[in-house]
Each structure stands twice: as C-alpha cells, then as structure tokens.
TrEMBL record:
<dbReference type="InterPro" id="IPR035906">
    <property type="entry name" value="MetI-like_sf"/>
</dbReference>
<keyword id="KW-0472">Membrane</keyword>
<keyword id="KW-1133">Transmembrane helix</keyword>
<dbReference type="GO" id="GO:0055085">
    <property type="term" value="P:transmembrane transport"/>
</dbReference>
<feature type="domain" description="ABC transmembrane type-1">
    <location>
        <begin position="436"/>
        <end position="724"/>
    </location>
</feature>
<feature type="transmembrane region" description="Helical">
    <location>
        <begin position="705"/>
        <end position="727"/>
    </location>
</feature>
<feature type="transmembrane region" description="Helical">
    <location>
        <begin position="32"/>
        <end position="57"/>
    </location>
</feature>
<keyword id="KW-0812">Transmembrane</keyword>
<dbReference type="Pfam" id="PF00528">
    <property type="entry name" value="BPD_transp_1"/>
</dbReference>
<feature type="transmembrane region" description="Helical">
    <location>
        <begin position="502"/>
        <end position="523"/>
    </location>
</feature>
<protein>
    <submittedName>
        <fullName>Phosphate transport system permease protein</fullName>
    </submittedName>
</protein>
<comment type="similarity">
    <text>Belongs to the binding-protein-dependent transport system permease family.</text>
</comment>
<keyword id="KW-0813">Transport</keyword>
<feature type="transmembrane region" description="Helical">
    <location>
        <begin position="543"/>
        <end position="568"/>
    </location>
</feature>
<dbReference type="GO" id="GO:0005886">
    <property type="term" value="C:plasma membrane"/>
</dbReference>
<feature type="transmembrane region" description="Helical">
    <location>
        <begin position="633"/>
        <end position="658"/>
    </location>
</feature>
<feature type="transmembrane region" description="Helical">
    <location>
        <begin position="442"/>
        <end position="464"/>
    </location>
</feature>
Amino acid sequence: MSTSPLPPPPELRLTTPLRKRWLQLRRYKDRLATLFIMLGGLGVILSVLMILFYLLYQVVPLLTSARIVPLQQQIEQPLTGQSLYMALDAEGRIGVRLTQQGELQFFQPASGALLQQQRIALPDNSHITDLADAGDGLMVLALSDGRVLPVQRQYSGTNNLQPVLHYPLGIEPLSLQPAPAGPLAAAVNQKQLLLISFHDGQLHQFHFDLSQPGPTPIQSVSLPTPGFEPRKLLLMPQQSRLLALGPEGRIGVIPLQGEGQTYEVIRAAREEITLFELLPGRRSLMLGDQSGALSQWFFVPDEYNSLKLQQIRQYDPLQSAPKRLAGREQDNSFITLEQNGTLSVYSLTSSRALLRTNLLGDEPDALALSAYNSFLLMERNNRVSSWQLQAPHAEITLSSLWSEIWHEDYDEPGYIWQSSTNGTDSAAKYSLVPLVFGTLKAALYAMLMATPMAICGAIYTAYFMAPALRRKIKPMIEMMAAVPSVVLGFLAGLWLAPFMQVHLAAILLLVLLLPISILLFAFGWEKMPQRIRFLLPEGWDVILLLGVIPLVAWLAFLLAVPIEAWLFDGQLVLWLGNQVGISYDQRNALIVGIAMGFAIIPTLFSLTEDAIHAVPRHLSNGALALGATPWQALTWMILPAASAGIFSALMIGFGRAIGETMIVLMVTGNTPIMEMNIFEGMRTLAANIAIEMPESSVGSSHYRVLFLTALLLFLFTLVVNTIAELIRQQLRRKYRAL
C-alpha cells in the first residue's frame, strides 16, 4: 500500500503588508499608552509637589524676621519743652506729646505733620510733677502745688481726627486731703476713677464718679504702707491690687479689696529696679534691673488658693539696664529700650529677642507704640522720629507652637489652643500640641476598634470560610466603604452618643461578654457530636453567630440594670465622676472610636483579606500534609507570607484615621484638651482646619498657622507612608522564599 508524503506546511509570512500595518498600529498604541501612563504619573507627582509648594508658600511668612523701618515722612519741626509723656492712638494715626509745662502737641506720624498745640490750663507758677495714665485717654496730672487735674484726650471725626481735651471733673485742679507728695496711680472703670497717692509716709485711696463730676471724692480711705517710700505705683486689673516699687529691688503688694488683708513685700531683684511697667491689659508686670535682667511677673494661686505675685519668665540678659517699655496686647509683643539706646523686640511667650538694634545711638527721652499698624515714636533731644515695627507674626515662635507656656489668667503652664479672644484676653494662643495629641488619640482609638475586628474577620473569611459564603460576605463588607463619613458622623453624634450615655453600663458589659460568649460557643460547637456538626457544611458554621450575638446583646442589656444599681448606685456616668474622678463627655473618644472604626473596617478588611487569599494554597496544603493543624499552617505559613499586605492595610487605615474630618468634626466635641480619658473629647488637626479656616482672616497669623497644620498632616502622611513602604519591602524580601 503506497502512501503519499504529507504536503509541506504553509509558509508563515510575518512581513505581509497587513501584518506590518497591524504591528505598526500596536507599536503606536503601546507608545500612546506609555505616554499616557507617564503623563498620569508625572501629573500625580506634580500635583503633590504643587500642594506642598503652596502650603510652604503660606507657611514660610511665619518665619519672617522682625525689623523696624523709618517712615518716609518725618516730623521735621523741633519740639519745645521737656517731654513728660508720649502716646499714640490705637491705629497710630495721631501722636501726642505732653511737657512739664502742660503743653500738648498733636502730630501725624504717617505724614509728619504737626496738627495743633494746646496748653492745659495750669495754675500760675505750677508745673506737672507726675502723671498717671488711667486708660481710655484719661491722664491724671500731679501738679507742683499739691493738687491733681484729670484730663482726657478725645478725638472727633472719622477720617480727619481732631483732638479735643475734656476735663471730666472740671477745669479746676482738685485739692486732695492730704495733698499728694509722691507718685500717683490711677485707673478708670465704668465711669469710676480710682486714684491712689502717697503723702507723709501713707498711701491714700480716692474714688471719683465721672458720671457726676464734682471736686469731692465719693470715698477716701487710707491703705497700709509697705514700709518704704514708693518710687512708682501701678494698679492691677479690676483695681484689685496696688504694686509699689521700692528700693533694693523690693516690690510691695497692697490689696485694695476685702477687709483684714495685709500688704506683702517681695524681693524681686538683686539690684535696683530700672524698669517697672505693666504690659497692655494690666495683667503682667515687667521688671528690669541695673544688671540688664528682664522678667515677667503676674499673680497665680498658691497651695492655699491665694493669689501671689510670682516670676513666670526670665528673658535673655540685656546689654545694659532697661529703661522704657511699650507693648501690644493683640500679639503679645513688646519693646524695651536700654540705657545705651539698644531697642529689643520680644514676644511675651519666648525668652529670646526677635530683634536687637540701636536706632538713635543713645537712650531716647520718650517712647510710644500703637496697638495696630505698629507705628513707633521715639524722642531724642526734642526731636521725634517715626518708625514702623514690621513683625506681623511676632506671636508665632517655636516655643509658642510646641512648648508649655504659662499664660496670664492660668494657674499653671499648659499647651493652649485658643484662636478666638475674649473680653479679658485679646491675644490668641496657638499651641499645636493639643491638636496633634487629639489627632493621634482619635486615630488610636479608631484603630483599636477596627484592627481586631477587621484583621480577624479577614483571616477567617480568606482561610476558613466556605468559598460560596465568602463570595457573598466580602462584597457586603466592602459596600460599607461607600457610606459617606458625614452620615456616620451624623448618626454617631445625634443617636449613638446619647444612647451610649444612657446605656454605658450595658455597652461595657456587652464588650466584656461578647468575645467570651463567642469563644464559649465555638468551644461548645467543637464538642458537639459529629452528626450535629456535620449538618452544616464546613466553613458555614459562622452563620450560627447570627443568633448568638443578638442573644448576648439582649442578655447584656438585661443584666446591666441590676448590676448598675448594685455596684454604681444606678448611674455609672455619675459614679465615674464622683467616685473615680473620671468625667464623662457625651461626645468622647469612645464614640469616635466606634464611628471612625466603622469607617476604617472595610478598607482594613478588604486589603487584608486580599493579601491572605493571594497566598498560594499549596503552602497551607503542604503544611497540612506534613501534620500541621490549620491554625499552625495559618500562623507559620500564611500570615508571614501575607504580612507585607497586612502591614500595608494597617498603614492605609491609620492614614485614613489621621486625615478623617467629618466624623471627628461632628462627634468629638472639638475641645482642644490633652486627656487620655476615653470618655473625654478632643480636637484633631483636620477638624480644626474645617472649623476655623472660614473664620480666619487671609494673611493673618491664624490663617497661616492653619496652613501649618495642613502641612503637618501632609508631611505626617508622607513620612508614615514612606516608612510603611520600606517596612513592606523588607517583609517581602524576608518571606519571598516562601
């Protein structure tokens, strides 16, 4: 039988025109896809860099150094008389200078124009020996004939201010009995003028009603004398205490309110005090002595809850003795002038000077600083020079952001965030420590809530659960990620928080009973006869927990009532506060942990489950074939191989918790406090930005500090993700052999 040979196979030609066109089109597609992917990656990198650069653009001005520049227009006309007092209005539009002969000279620092000159009607052959600034433009003049004359500066008009002198107690000087022979102290509060004078070894206190002018005080009393003749008198806020400067660095503290109180003498300096002034706001006393020491003092309660004058802060030593001081309450900055003419700019919360310079070469005769616009006047040899202090963010220093600061009206140092001001404190406080603490606290409790449930659930779903059930459970949990965080915050704030406060004992009992009940049920199910256990297919036994969990919850709420009445007098929340000292805030870290944990669980669960399920099955099968139990195969083989993915899931969940805004905004109470108490609230960096950015003024210190918090969040996320990636790569290299 003959066979014919097989025909040769057809020639495969790869160079046909159609094939060439197809290969060329594929190359074009590959290049186009490569270009788009590259542009997309570069776009992401560029977007991140642009965000970083914009944040730096808003934050860098906080680092601007302070400087003092001369105004273009100076007061050319020399002034007459010996300067006794110089001041500026709040906006710095009009300056005033008072001489010993009672001549008032008003001028505009910005234009250098001398507006007008007025003379106070002084008695013949008398001049001004002392002056007490009572506030609100009211000056109490002590005359050489022993009388006093209150004079108030007022300004009429809006754009073109015109100075007007007002005599609230009449144009005639007042004859006080006994007549003052020493320094004066005065303060005005609600149309009440308090005047204190020293005469013949005795301090005298006078009250005048400015709403009913008259030459006779409505009250006159004698005060205890601190045992020395005071060189200067100062009145503290609310006219509560009188401070008297004595020799040898001594200060006398004389209470003005209450009966039976005695004076106190403090040795505040080792050498003679050369600077004895109250900062604007009349709460902090600034002291400087002959050696160049400069310190801040104010009243704080002692162990007996009595207010004592205490040194709060010691500043860097000056080159010579400080002589003059001017400050601004709005940003807690002040200026000192030394005996050698050196001018130093300070922030009240930092011991280091922001600026040191010598503008006039010698000590000026007078100094004035406006509260706003930072206009500065200095007089030397009857010539007034106009300057402007450019320190827009003087209150923002490294110590004010990150160190404990002892602020006025606080009992102890602390980390304080208080961007809004009140009637007694017009200076904001920008400590970032409570915000960082609140951010980490919220993330910690959220991770404590989410991590065990998500990781354990993912392990069971990927390794033990039946595949058919896994295909139903995993999408359901992943759909939880679609719930908006604002909805979770709304439900947690309006429903969960009040519910937890009423049923706190039941919730805590449920947290204790639920894991114990699940373990007991699992142990009991394992001991069941095989004919009962085999009624359910392998991997479906988790369905039985759908009946166990509601039963345990019902039992916890049932038992909580008698347990709470027996152990906690029927009110666990009140018992915690009264007996243990743990306060309970309705919107607290526990609520945040539950709500934010619910938002994090889908991400943690999905990534962890994918990492475990991606481990080749032959690893566990080989371990089981060698005699390992399923749990041993899981802990020795599966989890190490999936550790890189699990760690990535934890870092992504932690980053989500750090950056979460709406849940913490609606649930935490937004109080910037530092308490690890799980029943107290907090304020996070993200929530703080959402709350305060609409209220901040563009370009202000508050505005730029909020951008600084955004930069901190950005850098924190970048650093955490970088460290996480390095650890993940190390874990992958370690377990690559598996």
